[in-house]
Specification:
425 residues; alpha/beta; CBS-domain; three-stranded mixed sheet; 20 helices
Length: 425
């Protein structure tokens, strides 16, 4: 292996070799999962390759909602830590970072605004008047949405209400352009700022990304009082792809997904949206069900036409031109409009790709390769006729790599948990 890679080893492959060295000295009676747990517990999280600088960004607490959407979209990330601009210069990292703002939280806010227009009189907001959507009353109202499960299906009138007029009014409103992140923190249902220190183990990080449903894990340097790295699910999957050929990886990666109990989500539990439903229904389902994306399927069928993920809400906010040809933004119209927009802008995006699918006979190694090469977060499992049989996410794959030892986290979450239901998407 060393001769094959020569001097061209990637940082991820070097980390894989470190795991291999530890793998070779594990007790022979241990199971493969127990061996991997022991290996990852022995590696500090500081060993993980640094994320690109463009992905290690911070959001100031005085940034507007519009600025947050632009920053997350520009850097192609799902969430970012919020820094308290009023914190003293010598504040500890615990006092400096006051939460994580996520596209998932933005979706909650959008859904609330859409439902406000779905009442007896929606003219005030749709006509662009901002008086009814500014000030503390809105924050208080949105805080009142204690559970996203209270949000039912969109009413029959919603297809018209969530036309371009709604989004044009929303994005041109003073509330959207001027309201600060810190002022509407409740409406975002902020995720807490849960970080690791550089001395914490790789196993802790993997468990947070899988079992504890975090999209990314900040790693802080206590001495510098700032974030040293941000590790994402995608970065871990890329590391695994770089470890192909190493014995520890092959002992696991050559198994069929069905042997590992994947997909976890079976056909009758797949959360989906039909092509003629309003696109906001897709985002509502993601939030209600705690998933990061849903397939768009043909009416009455099980064949997927495309996938909409939580981050795609950005296109309703930053690209108003996608509304111009549609009276209402159905899931199918949304996919068509965004693909045209991306082609015109010459931007790369998973939305430009065809649906990425696999079969139950594919190996976990093959699935990892597809996820990594396409830079996507989920792959759909289909039968021979192309019907949906399940979905596999990055989190599912990581969860099959390690397990949580009894009492492992101890008091790690004290002061943070219990997290709100579905706090991560």
């Amino acid at each position: 292996m060393e001769e094959e890679r020569g001097m061209t080893w990637s940082p991820e492959a070097k980390l894989g070799m470190q795991v291999e060295d530890l793998w070779d000295v594990q007790e022979p009676q241990l199971s493969p999962t127990e061996k991997l747990n022991a290996c990852f517990e022995s590696i500090p999280v500081s060993s993980f390759p640094p994320a690109p600088e463009s992905q290690v960004i911070e959001i100031n607490s005085d940034a507007s909602l519009a600025e947050v959407v632009q920053l997350l979209s520009q850097h192609k990330i799902l969430s970012a830590p919020v820094v308290d601009v009023d914190a003293p210069k010598d504040a500890s990292w615990i006092d400096r970072y006051i939460g994580m703002v996520e596209f998932a939280g933005i979706v909650v806010w959008i859904l609330h605004q859409s439902e406000k227009t779905d009442g007896p009189d929606n003219s005030e907001f749709v006509n662009g008047e901002s008086e009814g959507i500014t000030g503390p009353a809105v924050a208080a109202a949105v805080n009142g949405v204690s559970s996203p499960r209270k949000l039912g299906n969109l009413s029959p009138r919603s297809a018209a209400i969530i036309s371009g007029k709604f989004f044009e009014a929303l994005t041109s409103s003073d509330f959207y352009k001027n309201m600060k992140v810190r002022d509407i923190s409740g409406s975002f249902r902020w995720a807490p700022f849960l970080a690791l220190q550089k001395s914490n183990s790789f196993l802790t990080m993997l468990l947070l990304l899988s079992k504890y449903r975090m999209k990314s894990v900040p790693v802080v340097d206590p001495g510098e009082r700032k974030i040293d790295n941000i590790i994402t699910q995608s970065a871990v999957i890329h590391m695994l792809e770089e470890c192909v050929g190493l014995p520890w990886f092959e002992s696991w990666g050559t198994k069929k997904i069905s042997e590992l109990g994947l997909p976890l989500m079976k056909p009758n539990h797949i959360i989906k949206v039909y092509e003629d439903e309003p696109v906001l229904q897709a985002f509502k389902l993601m939030r209600q069900k705690g998933v990061g994306g849903v397939p768009v399927v043909g009416n009455g069928g099980r064949k997927a036409l495309g996938n909409i993920s939580i981050r795609d809400i950005q296109f309703l906010l930053i690209a108003p031109e996608i509304y111009k040809n549609y009276r209402s933004i159905t899931a199918k119209n949304f996919l068509t409009a965004v693909r045209s927009y991306l082609e015109e802008q010459k931007e790369s995006s998973p939305l430009l790709n065809a649906m990425v699918m696999c079969g139950s006979d594919n190996t976990i190694k093959e699935v990892i390769a597809m996820l990594d090469s396409k830079k996507i977060h989920r792959i759909y499992v289909v039968d021979n006729e192309g019907n949906l049989e399940g979905v596999i996410t990055l989190r599912d794959i990581i969860s099959k790599l390690v397990h949580e030892p009894r009492g492992y986290f101890g008091d790690f979450f004290d002061g943070v948990l219990p997290l709100p239901a579905n706090s991560r998407v």
